Amino acid sequence: MAEITQLLIHWLRAFYLIEITTLEPLALGADANAAVYKAKSVDTQVYFVKVRQGPPAEAPIEVITLLQNEGIKELISPIKTREGHQTLHVENLMLTVYPFVEGENGFTRTLTDEQWILFGKALRKIHEIPMPKAVEQRIRRESFSTKWRDSVRSIMSAIEGDCDEIGAKFSAYLKEHAGTIADLVSRSEKLSKKIKGQSFPFVLCHSDIHAGNLLLTNEGGLFLIDWDDPLMAPRERDLMFIGGGVGNVWNNSREETLFYQGYGETELNPALLAYYRHERILEDIVDFAEGILLNNSSLEDKNEMYGHFLGMFEPNGVVDIALQADEAIVE
């Protein structure tokens, strides 16, 4: 930790001309390949610093630039390096620096009525942005992959083994609710077949616009953050979060009404909504399994992950909502 801190302080001085006095790690996000920090400079400015391990990913920055050029104000622009670049690539790391915006995410603070409407307006504008071919070709495209279904099947067939106390509880819960999980996989499979062969307009999607990726400012505004994985997909890829209950929030009809008051009229495909909600649950099961059973996470982190995992199966949680969405489809 001390080594990366000193490196970041050095890089910020050398490439951004920012003299840092304090660098504080922040416990935000679920990306195991990324870390974020709150940095304070000698001139009392505050910055949000994100460092990500892996190959360079310029598409997210290009998307933010495109959206801001199209007049989308609910985004935070990265600060450029002294050479005018919006990201810095050093060894196998990508560094992005933003101005630090005070506020809370949608998990810790409830959106006001006005923020729900503003959120809807902003996402509608994003979904209607005409995509330049050069940018679109650099963005991942929805393929309706079997990845998460296959991964969950593998986990359920191999949940025996040595593990710590949290891992034992997690494994026991998987076994006890194997029928429910198998039903989720089966329903997702059927939904994928239902939508296969259909034609959908693809739009620019954030792809992970849950409550944790909305920054609610103290002045009543909001920002859509964490554009690490933009996706060309049907708009239902984003809209499934509205009323979807991820994190046991955004699960009541009044909020949906306010959101769509801002978003405007749109004809949603019920099978797509249900499909995406099932797939999200399967993806989260895989992520929790990896974090609890495979990674060298602390017991505190594992316990937190286990709590979030259990929350998916609570009344009016994501599992209930996904099943209801599937059952509501009119053949």
UniProtKB/TrEMBL annotation:
Keywords: Transferase. This is Aminoglycoside phosphotransferase. One of its GO terms (molecular function) is transferase activity. The keyword 4Fe-4S does not apply. It comes from the Bacteria. Residues 28-248 form the Aminoglycoside phosphotransferase domain. It comes from Estrella lausannensis. Pfam families: APH. The keyword Cytoplasm does not apply.
